[in-house]
Amino acid sequence: MGKWQNILAASITSPEQLARRFGIDAEPLLRVVQRYPMRITPYYLNLINEPGDPLWRQCVPDARELEDDLQQEDPLREEILSPVPGLIHRYPDRVVWLVSSTCAVYCRFCMRKRQVGCVGAVTGKVQISAALDYIASRPEIRDVILSGGDPLLLDDDALEEILARLRQIPHLEIIRIGSRVPVTLPERITTRLCRMLKRYHPLYINTHFNHPLEITAESATACARLADAGIPLGNQTVLLKGVNDNPGVMKRLMQLLLKIRVKPYYIHQMDLVKGTGHFRTRVEQGLEIMESLRGHTSGMASPYYVIDLEGGKGKVPLLPDYVKRVGGNVLLVRNYRGEMVEYGDVD
Asked: Could you say which residues form the signal peptide (predicted)?
């Protein structure tokens, strides 16, 4: 195994290990881990300052995960929208391909909590061929998003095989990779990996920082290696109660992302996934956060705030009410100070 694989193998996977380090009672967490596995890399564990802090909440099991019976395991209907195993075809011109079922850290708010870390790998030869055949047979597909789990937990050769075979499909224009390893296992972003990825442009990576404490010298170096390989980097943040549901925290996160060459892309309202209800915030909090960004920091630091609708109906951007028509061609437009300013529209 390589260095990053050895580091991953040293991860904490049981509440007893947490108890020895932090002096907590492991007993309430044992049942949770039986249903929803845990894994915390040594790197991410060392970022936790104390039990209950924003990073602890993201990765340490919580008894409330088993108390949330109101929501569904698959509210986005991904399995219904899966024409072949591991492939989700929701939008006309793009598909999501789940090429891995494991992550470096198992986030407690995961949208695929029902399956990530709970099932075997989804990248066997038969599944890979079926997915590639489906994509190749549909010329309307121009965009493939590799997801999981985390695609960057595949070894370099396995990942390159997928990328190379995708690049043989003439109508496929871009490939995107969704990965949290720059945040949770930055050691994985090696120079060898980046040299390989560089061969398959146009290639984009969306990563997943949720709190300013996750932006460290190590994660910044990982992102710099990817950016220096010519890969545009975006970030998808999930709005999480007790983690980043604060305008000041979110603004600082967006600013620091730009500093490490990562463009804020989405702030996601929590999906209505079973076992994650204790992370959910009111939509109004997200709108307040968006208000706190507009005009108070660079427009580049203002992502879309979106809800992913139940039933596979797609993402919808949410915006505060900025414009009011007061008659004819006169609009009142609210600026970042909250002032309503007149604007003359066309007749």
From this structure: none
